[in-house]
Amino acid sequence: LDRPFSCILNQMEYSLSHALIALFLSFALCAFCAASETGLFSLNRYRLRHRAKHDKRARRLHRLLSHPDKILGAILIGNVFATAVASTVAHALGVHYWGEIGAIAAPFVLPIALLVFAEVSPKTMAALKPEPTAYATAWPLQLMLWLFYPIVWIVGSLSTLLLRLFGIVPSNRHSHDPLHLEELNTIVNEANALISPYHQDML
User: Fold this and answer.
1) Of 43-57, 135-149, 176-190, which gets the smallest average pLDDT?
2) Average of pLDDT values for 7-32?
3) CB of 82 within 8 A of CB of 30?
4) Three-state DSSP class for 183?
5) What is the mean pLDDT of the chain?
6) CA distances (Å), 149 to each of 88, 106, 135, 167, 183, in order?
7) Torsion-angle region of residue 44: left (phi > 0), alpha (psi -120 to 50) or beta?
8) SS3 state at 64
9) CA separation for the pair 60, 138 (Å, rounded)
10) Could you give the CA distance from residue 90 to residue 85 in angstroms, rounded to a whole number?
11) What are 63-89's pLDDT values in tens digits?
C-alpha cells in the first residue's frame, strides 16, 4: 500500500509544480505585456526617429510603432491569454486546496495580485524608464507579432470594421503628425539648459 500512496503523493506534487509554473509564467507574460505597452507608447517619437537613422534597435522600434494597431493587438492577445490561464489555474488550485471557499476567494484574490504584480508595478516601471523598457521588449514583441499574426489580423479587421460603422477610419497618420508652432516653442523653452539664449531666440 505504501508504494501506490507514494505514487499518488508524487503525482500531486508534480501537478502542483506544473500549476505553480503555469501561474508564474502567466503573471510574467501579463507583466511583460503591461510594461511593453507603456514603454512603447511613452517613447519620445522625435528622438526615436532621429536615432532610427543610425541605430538598428531604434529602427526596429520605429517599424513596430508604424503599425500601432498590430502591435497593440499582439500585446492585448498575449495579455488576455495569460489572464485566462492565470484565472483557470488559480481557480483549480483554490478548489483543490480549500474547496468552496477557495472557489469563492480566487476571483477576488487573483485580480488584486494581477493588478499589483502584473499591471501597476510593470507599468509604473516602464513609465519611469520608457526607453530601456521599449528597447528590451522590442524583439519579444516582434516574435509575438509573428506568432499571433493570424489572430491579430482577424481581430484588427473586425475592430476596423466596427470603427467604420461609427464613421471612424483608422490610419497611421497620427504617428507622423508635425509639431505645431506652440509645441515647438514649448520644447525650445524646456531645453534651456541645452540651448543658449541666443540660439533659443533664433529658434
Assistant:
1) 176-190
2) 77
3) yes
4) helix
5) 83
6) 25, 32, 21, 26, 37
7) beta
8) helix
9) 7
10) 8
11) 888 888 889 999 999 999 999 999 999
Helix (H, G, I), strand (E, B) or coil at 129: coil
* Residue-level pLDDT at 156: 84
Confidence band (pLDDT; 50, 70, 90) for 200? low
- Spatial distance between the Cα atoms of 31 and 114, rounded to a whole number of angstroms: 8
Q: How many residues does the chain have?
A: 203
* Contacts of 2 by beta carbon, 8 Å cutoff, 6+ apart: none
Exposed, middle or buried by CB within 10 Å (0-12, 13-18, 19+), for 144? buried
- C-alpha span between 16 and 97 (Å, rounded): 11
For residue 63 the three cell numbers come to 517599424
User: Are the CB atoms for 28 and 36 separated by under 8 Å?
Assistant: no
Are 79 and 40 in contact by the 8 Å Cβ rule? The answer is no
Would you state the cell numbers that stand for residue 167, as one nine-digit string? 464613421
